[in-house]
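Private note to self, pasted from the team thread so I don't lose it. Backbone tokens:
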């Protein structure tokens, strides 16, 4: 290959830097960087690059929407997704949008250059681990949402809780004590009858420090205590007010407390143990971290991502990343 123009669209700067460093190993690649979906479309219209690398969770215009637009304005440009999202539904949607390939971010160093070569030859490339995933693995989600600030974080939690309640699920929310009042206010603003859902047990609202006090021993999460504590909470929430079984979801900020206090390895272990318990009970989870928390220990962020089925970013309370 020679004289290949590649446009990289990735909003998370550390990942974008890694991608560009890999591409710079190939002198024939001329690389242009953008940080959102709208920029990707505008730059592709101008440059008509050979290849566009897209993340799924781009701000302003998500990667799937951008891929559809690229087919219209740059029909000869190939598209390759590079994303943390491993949902088979999302991968299928990306390929239907016209992408020739899909690389899992955690396989960047192994797959990216090979994927680019394949795609530019007109072939399809999907990271092997994604091809081998059983469809049942996607049934249980443990998603990571990185938020710009407290207001965005609270809004993200409120949206998740409202959607779960509307679907008939019970919600166990574990939040910083300082976020409790603002979360309740946000839920009232979305027409949730707070007293009613709390009284019925449809929403179980707990403080992060209270829950951690039951689980952490010598600054490390105890697997037995976590399994029992979370298992008991899920078991109780799994029956409605008259004893009928129902689905349970969880969300909040337990591991983020450990992360914020510099105990990042303990936080990652907590997420790993949480995975084991919630998979056992068939429970979906949304974890919320502030950008200021994550950015303090960026060298551990990849390990944190491994413990989640998808990673998203939100930069405002009114737009989805």
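Design output:
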């Amino acid at each position: 290959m020679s004289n290949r123009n590649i446009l990289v669209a990735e909003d998370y700067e550390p990942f974008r830097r890694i991608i560009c460093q890999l591409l710079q190993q190939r002198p024939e690649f001329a690389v242009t960087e953008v940080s959102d979906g709208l920029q990707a479309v505008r730059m592709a219209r101008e440059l008509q690059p050979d290849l566009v690398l897209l993340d799924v969770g781009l701000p302003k215009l998500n990667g799937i929407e951008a891929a559809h637009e690229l087919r219209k304005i740059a029909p000869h440009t190939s598209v390759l997704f590079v994303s943390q999202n491993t949902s088979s539904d999302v991968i299928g949607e990306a390929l239907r949008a016209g992408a020739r390939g899909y690389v899992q971010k955690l396989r960047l160093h192994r797959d990216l250059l090979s994927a680019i070569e394949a795609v530019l030859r007109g072939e399809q490339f999907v990271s092997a681990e994604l091809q081998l995933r059983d469809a049942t693995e996607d049934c249980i989600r443990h998603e990571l949402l990185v938020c710009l600030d407290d207001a965005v974080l609270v809004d993200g939690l409120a949206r998740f809780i409202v959607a779960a309640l509307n679907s008939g699920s019970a919600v166990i929310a574990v939040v910083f004590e300082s976020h409790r009042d603002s979360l309740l206010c946000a839920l009232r603003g979305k027409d949730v009858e707070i007293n009613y859902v709390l009284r019925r047990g449809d929403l179980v609202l707990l403080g992060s420090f209270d829950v951690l006090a039951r689980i952490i021993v010598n600054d490390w999460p105890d697997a037995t205590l976590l399994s029992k504590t979370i298992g008991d909470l899920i078991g109780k929430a799994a029956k409605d007010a008259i004893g009928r079984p129902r689905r349970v979801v969880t969300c909040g900020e337990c591991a983020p407390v450990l992360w914020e206090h510099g105990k990042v390895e303990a936080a990652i272990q907590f997420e790993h143990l949480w995975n084991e318990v919630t998979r056992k009970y068939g429970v979906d989870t949304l974890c919320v971290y502030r950008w200021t928390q994550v950015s303090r220990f960026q060298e551990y962020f990849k390990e944190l991502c491994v413990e989640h089925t998808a990673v998203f970013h939100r930069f405002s309370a009114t737009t989805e990343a």
